[in-house]
Amino acid sequence: MFAFLITSFIYGQENVSINFSNDSKEVYHLSLIIYTPDGKTQTRVSDLTSGQVKSYSLPVTTEIYIVNLKQETFAMKGNDIKATGVKPYIVLKDSDNEIVIKLSSIKQN
User: Fold this and answer.
1) What is the dihedral of CA 19, 60, 77, 83, to 10 degrees?
2) Alpha carbons 32 and 64: distance in angstroms, whole number
3) Cβ distance 6 to 48 under 8 Å?
4) What is the mean pLDDT of the chain?
5) Dihedral-angle region of residue 98 (phi above 0 means left; psi in -120 to 50 means alpha; beta otherwise)
6) Residue 6, SS3 per DSSP
7) How far apart are CA 20 and CA 23, in angstroms?
8) Assign residue 80 a region: left if phi > 0, alpha if psi is -120 to 50, beta otherwise?
9) Cα–Cα dist 32/86, whole Å
10) Phi, psi of 14 (to 5 degrees)
11) pLDDT confidence of 14, banded at 50, 70, 90?
């Protein structure tokens, strides 16, 4: 709790919750590359079964890239996905708190 308060104080913002929901009958391979405002990069990969929801609590202004397998491999080798010119799927705002993104709505390149 103390670390959360320090983080909120330093960055002047709180986290928002974002949820990814697999609304199809197929398993969905969700691959996220996340850039937080403090400059850290995270890669989150998971296979969501039908009806499964994956939730994250992240700071406002976090950039989230939903990437395909080729982009995932590129990033896992230590490369910066931003250098490819691709735009983030979403940049989190305060108003995005508790947003649910249905995976069927995501267009993969």
Assistant:
1) 120
2) 7
3) no
4) 89
5) left
6) helix
7) 9
8) beta
9) 13
10) -110, 170
11) confident
Q: pLDDT tens, 24-40?
A: 999 999 999 999 999 99
Q: Which string of DSSP letters, residue by residue, matches 31-97?
A: EEEEE-TTS-EEEEEEEEPTT-EEEEEEETT-EEEE--HHHHHHHHTT--GGGGTPPPSEE--GGGT
CA atoms of 63 and 35, how far apart (whole Å): 5
Enter the tokens of residue 26. 């197929």
The answer to whether the CB of 85 falls within 8 A of the CB of 61 is no
Q: What is the pLDDT of residues 57-69, one digit of tens each?
A: 999 999 999 999 9
